[in-house]
Write a sequence for this structure.
């Protein structure tokens, strides 16, 4: 280091070895999550220029697709023509350019690919500290200077946006896929008081939907009750005190046994979908949508927002058009439904994630595990004092793993009791197989 005349400053070495050591010891400021997301976009653009191709989510920068990974080590088949398989194989093959892109990336973009790995790791860093290339770091503030509520809220919102935008990027470049049926498998657990309100039960239900794409083909639903049990240790104690029943009448105390649940799991029940489900590809905001309706959903964020606003005000709760909070909640639920399991194009699904990223009140809650044991990032999109709703998202694949809610209910003694529910999206995608028992 020299002065303006080019002479070394007294006491400083001529080389930079010591200074570099100090700099390495002290570290450097970490980027914000918004910077990470912007950097990822610039990185992909740079890779596209270097390789001469449009860079989708193939090669070393991303996984095989938004529905391409449930169990480690499973490989996506060339196309869906055999027995329905878990989420990782519901789409057809990866883009044909994947091998060519990997070879080019290995020679023209190896350094950029390494940087991309760091960026993606930073996007999903847990909210316990500043973003680093290796995950959460030390807290950004000291015990003498605790973060304010506003700064904590702002940080949670910023991390939520980063996760949602990363998920949108991951899903946007995926192939649309095709098949005879749009198949979804969900597992739902929910808590509810017994009919007499003595304690709370947790019930489970597995459900498959096979929605026929071709006119004239039938659509099917397969349901299987997964049984019921006391929800918590205190509920179990109350259950034992009541004689450890194995079935419950969920109607009011003394009412006829019209709504009975069993402790043991039931048998699968296959039923044909009739009525408004004929020719339908799903429902949104309590309205059945035809395949043509689904194909007409706008693929840009502004268009999707306008479409959903019109849809929820027409079919949603009364007064939603004049109640900003109610409208926000309905928009959030509709966007989550599109992001999770509706048979829409990857572009529309990506726009649903981007729409969620713009909504007020959205915040990140860090890493979470769904009831099937899969890890993702928890994003709260509704929290109004009585209802809290969040999704668990894998930002590297763009998959919505689960939707989780907590609702405050009134207990028998007049107090408030939280009731939890979760729907895990186990399988989703196109298949040419026919429903079980209908082949």
């Amino acid at each position: 280091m020299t002065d303006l005349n080019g002479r070394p400053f007294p006491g400083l070495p001529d080389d930079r070895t010591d200074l570099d050591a100090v700099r390495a010891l002290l570290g450097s400021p970490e980027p914000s999550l918004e910077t990470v997301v912007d950097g990822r976009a610039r990185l992909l653009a740079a890779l596209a220029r270097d390789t001469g191709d449009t860079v989708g989510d193939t090669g070393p920068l991303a996984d095989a697709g938004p529905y391409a990974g449930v169990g480690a080590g499973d490989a996506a088949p060339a196309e869906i023509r055999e027995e329905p398989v878990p989420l990782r194989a519901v789409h057809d093959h990866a883009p044909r350019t994947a091998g060519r892109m990997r070879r080019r990336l290995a020679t023209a973009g190896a350094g950029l690919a390494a940087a991309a790995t760091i960026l993606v790791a930073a996007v999903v860093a847990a909210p316990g500290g500043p973003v680093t290339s290796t995950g959460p770091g030390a807290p950004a503030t000291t015990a003498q200077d605790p973060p304010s509520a506003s700064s904590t809220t702002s940080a949670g919102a910023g991390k939520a946006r980063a996760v949602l935008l990363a998920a949108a990027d991951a899903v946007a470049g995926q192939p649309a896929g095709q098949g005879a049926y749009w198949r979804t498998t969900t597992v739902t657990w929910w808590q509810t008081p017994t009919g007499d309100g003595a304690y709370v039960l947790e019930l489970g239900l597995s459900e498959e939907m096979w929605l026929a794409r071709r006119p004239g083909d039938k659509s099917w639903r397969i349901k299987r009750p997964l049984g019921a049990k006391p929800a918590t240790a205190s509920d179990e104690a109350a259950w034992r005190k009541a004689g450890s029943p194995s079935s419950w009448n969920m109607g009011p105390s003394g009412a006829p046994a019209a709504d009975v649940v069993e402790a043991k799991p039931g048998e699968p029940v296959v039923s044909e979908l009739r009525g408004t489900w004929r020719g339908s590809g799903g429902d949104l905001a309590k309205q059945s949508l035809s395949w043509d309706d689904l194909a007409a959903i706008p693929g840009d964020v502004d268009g999707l927002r306008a479409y959903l606003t019109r849809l929820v005000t027409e079919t949603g709760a009364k007064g939603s058009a004049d109640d900003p909070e109610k409208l926000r909640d309905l928009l959030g639920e509709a966007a989550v439904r599109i992001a999770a399991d509706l048979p829409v194009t990857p572009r529309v699904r990506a726009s649903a994630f981007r729409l969620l990223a713009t909504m007020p009140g959205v915040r990140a809650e860090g890493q979470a595990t769904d009831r099937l044991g899969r890890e993702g990032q928890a994003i709260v999109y509704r929290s109004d004092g009585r209802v809290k709703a969040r999704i668990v998202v894998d930002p590297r694949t763009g998959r919505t793993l689960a939707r989780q809610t907590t609702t405050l209910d009134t207990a028998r003694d007049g107090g408030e009791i939280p009731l939890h529910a979760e729907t895990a999206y186990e399988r989703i995608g196109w298949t040419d197989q026919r429903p079980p028992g209908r082949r």
Summary: Confidence is low (pLDDT under 50) at residues 1-30, 41-147. Residues 10 and 397 are 55 Å apart (CA to CA). The chain is about 30% helix and 25% strand.
